[in-house]
Amino acid sequence: MQLFLRATLALVIGVASGLVAAATGLPLPWMLGPMIGTTVAAIAGAPLTSPMRLRTIFLPILGVMLGSGIDASTLSAIGQWTTTLLLLLPFGIVTSLACYLFYRRVGRYDPVTAFFSSMLGGINESILQGGNAGGDEKRIAMAHATRLLAVVLLGVLFFGLVLGVPTGATPDRQLQHLTLQDWLILGSCALIGAPLGKLIRLPAALIIGPMLLSAAAHVSGLVVVAPPDALVLAAQVVLGTVIGSRFIGSRIRQVGTDMLLGLGASLIMLAITVLFAFIVQSVTGTRMTHAFLAYSPGGLTEMSLLALAMGQEVAYVSVMHLARMSAVVLLSPLALPWLRRKQQAEA
Hints:
Layout (H helix, E strand, L loop, with lengths): L1 H23 L4 H15 L8 H16 L4 H6 L4 H24 L5 H8 L4 H10 L4 H26 L17 H20 L5 H15 L9 H17 L6 H33 L3 H8 L4 H10 L4 H18 L4 H11 L1
Helix pairs in contact: 1-2, 1-11, 2-11, 3-9, 3-10, 3-11, 3-14, 5-6, 5-12, 5-15, 6-7, 6-8, 7-8, 8-12, 9-10, 11-14, 12-13, 13-15, 14-15
Keywords: Aminopeptidase, Hydrolase, Membrane, Protease, Transmembrane, Transmembrane helix
Pfam families: AbrB
Protein name: Aminopeptidase
């Protein structure tokens, strides 16, 4: 019961922060507001618990919403994404190396901690692999939590202030636009897609499984309706609250230095992201907004939701993040023998 009340308090703070952000004109208020409000409350020591169970419920729903952005024209454009895919590997190497050197020389992190703090993979995978390899799990967790917070916040500001993309659109797609048949089909995509994705071992199975089924339903014409804005906004509130809740148990006086280092690494990553996005735009003519989101060093879930909320190419962004995540999972273990030798040499 206590955990339920703590999670409820986190959501209440998230919703209240979203209302304040919307009233003050903050870009993408229903995600940034909860994210900032919950982060401040967590660091201040409020009795919060991350609403992870609600996040687990929303991930298949988000997958269905992302799949709705895929249609026949999207499939025909896949061949044009080759350049972006080819540049993903050099982008990942340059970005990870730059941040590794930053954490080593400025932060004085040990080799393993610096490496997994610089990984462009998921936070859970980085903490697990880094801890098993002898790294400092708390520092790795703080690095990734700070990166996620900074990338979403600064990325949205970059969209609004630099690229001039509206990030606070008024909802106009209503729940009643879905027929009973739409609800049944899309609900089935969520209920079947999540366990199916786990069964066939898809990466990010809770999202990708429902997303693929939803995409198939939309491409085939079984469903043509866009995701209702109420669900998009609810997903933003939940995800923003979860991001902020990652700082539960942290205190500025204890982790202030690590948070500043995480912010510095995030700025390095975003600068390199802008550079590669500009290259992709120049070579292929891809919109800067699409390329920026495709390379942004946030998570698959967060960046795909941003693409959906801001009316960008969801399929393009999701595919690039899925490819990057898969490459990190496959290639990062190759560095472990070198890291262990370097770690032992410095011990």
